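Q: Protein A?
A:
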Amino acid sequence: MLIGELSRQTGVNAHQLRYYEAQGLLEPDRGANGYREYTDDAVLTVTQIRRLLEAGLSTQEIGYMLPCATGAAPDLESCPELLAVLRARLHGLDEHIDTLNRSRQVLHDYIDVTERRVAGRYRPCDSTAPDQTPA
């Protein structure tokens, strides 16, 4: 099948399919006319790539893991160091989530302090003028 048909069957844009090829994730044959020709197995491969991308894996990690993928889920066979790659990626995601949670809390703190200061400066009936109470 040509790239347009693979795109239609998988819902993945042709430029993304060419990117997967450039990353070594897809290997089409070339016809006499130079067009990319994909086997029916390419549909499964693209599905596996998309699912692994959804898991937050890089194309480099996917290139390492793709030979271990079976089925559309994808299920993964026990390939050497496969769990180490998955665990390392999960650890990186957990660290990133922790950092985001800390940043979120700091932003909440800034908002709370700022809102309290704003509420103390402005009278409820005149929210545009600074507090001008006589000293």
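Q: Protein B?
A:
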Amino acid sequence: MLIQCTKKLLEELKIEPVLVNTSEPALFSWHANLITVNRKKTVVLVNDSNHYVIVLYGIQARNFKNLDELIIFSIRETLLAECMKPELVENFTQHSPVVTYAKTKDRSSVAKMNKACEMVYWHADELQSNMVIQSSVNRRVSTHLVGIGKGAYKHPNECLYKDLENFTGTSIFDCQAVELMITLELTDYKVWRKVVVPLHFTFLQLHHILQILFTWQDCHLHDFNVIDKDKAITNIVCGEDAFEYPKDIPMIKEADCKLSEYIPKYLTIQYTYDFGDEWRHWIEVGNVIESYPHNYSVCVEGEGNAPPEDVGGEPGYYDFLEIIADPKHPDHKEMINWSQMQGYQDFNIELINHKLKGYGNL
């Protein structure tokens, strides 16, 4: 791998750069910068071919001594987290296993790298404080559009997929997935979705998928409960604050917990969103798909419109439905306008799947 570094990073590494190896393919060449995020030293790498981003966070002096291994390891872990075939990942990382450091190539490459650094700052609150490898943020940052000149733009992650398909000459994705049937608990109205989700996703990723499926806007707290024999046995929470209110069952952070740790062993999960309105979703586990050819979720079918944010729970939702169904109601127009601001919309499986694919497996 050719790592073309800024002056600041070269000084931190205390090495003399080599002359740029112009024979190194762009797919195995990266531009790298050293920045400070949340008062921690952070290395940001941007691929020369597709502009995919790799972040090494909280780098300490001992880490700089083995930066070569960290770069290769981070690339490997991120590609595996992208649902790529392990043999492809191994072939890619071993194709150019020796890391060589050089100066940056040109202003255009530096500009794209600086733009990537801006996006890392934008996602600073998503960086895991106890981890150098940031696979989730790598994937998240790499979904943002980047300019490639003359008004054209591209998604780095999609360009990476094409590069690797060309590199390997075959499909690149393969993972286990599971069918989930998700029903919003309502007395007089049906709202449900059936979706296929890769099993190596975390519960945090499942939360984001559920937000898309039900057109929520991620404005409130949430949690998951793993159910066994009609009893909650594990509480999977969204943040550290939840541990200030301990329960009599184990509590785990959603970002640290993969679906495969509980599915398909347990067949029912409860997801609660917004502890004020208290929207309870029942997740029933269906078939396991052994060879799933995507790295994103797909909504298979569904029914009903999810309530808008802050509608006032189930009673408020029924009042809302009554008002918007009656053009003569004095609050009809105001309620329609309010619901649009709250993201309320008809169930649209094509739009949902477009968003799920764009979200990828972040």
